[in-house]
């Protein structure tokens, strides 16, 4: 099963990073469902600005952690590559 690491741009221009197995479903949840993250619920609508596919959950969690530790400038560079 493939996993996706994704970055969302929130309505207040902040960035949110997460992982999922179903990218379309998860973005929809962030925008419309009570299952969206607490952080994004008050910052709707959100827009998917970056994603990458990885092979397994362990790799996804490690990559998510490394992206979350990046500065905002580094995240914006990643998005714009």
Could you tell me the mean pLDDT? 96
Low-pLDDT regions: none
Strand content: 25-35%
Query: Spatial order of the strands in the main sheet?
Result: 2-1-3
Instruction: Tell me the count of domains.
Output: 1
What sort of overall outline do the alpha carbons produce when their principal axes are compared?
globular
Biggest sheet statistics: 3 strands, antiparallel
Ends distance: 26 Å
* Total number of strands: 3
Helix/strand class:
alpha+beta
List the total number of helices: 4
Can you give keywords for this protein?
81 residues, alpha+beta, GIY-YIG endonuclease, three-stranded antiparallel beta sheet, 4 helices, 26% strand, globular
Quickly describe the structure.
This protein is of the alpha+beta class and 81 residues long. It is built from 4 helices and 3 strands; from the N terminus they run E-E-H-H-E-H-H.
Report on this model:
- It is a single chain.
- This protein has four helices and three strands.
- With 81 residues, the chain is α+β, with helices and mostly antiparallel strands.
- Strands 2-1-3 form a three-stranded antiparallel sheet, with helices on both faces.
- The longest helix has 12 residues, at 57-68.
- The protein starts with a strand and ends with a helix.
Describe the protein's topology:
Blueprint: E1 3-9, E2 15-20, H1 23-32, H2 38-41, E3 47-54, H3 57-68, H4 72-80
Antiparallel strand pairs: 1-2, 1-3
């Amino acid at each position: 099963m493939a996993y996706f690491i994704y970055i969302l741009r929130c309505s207040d221009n902040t960035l949110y990073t997460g992982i999922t197995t179903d990218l379309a479903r998860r973005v929809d949840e962030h925008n419309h469902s009570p299952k969206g993250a607490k952080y994004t619920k008050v910052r709707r609508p959100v827009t998917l600005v970056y994603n990458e596919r990885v092979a397994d959950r362990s790799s996804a969690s490690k990559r998510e952690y490394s992206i979350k530790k990046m500065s905002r400038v580094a995240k914006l560079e990643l998005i714009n590559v």
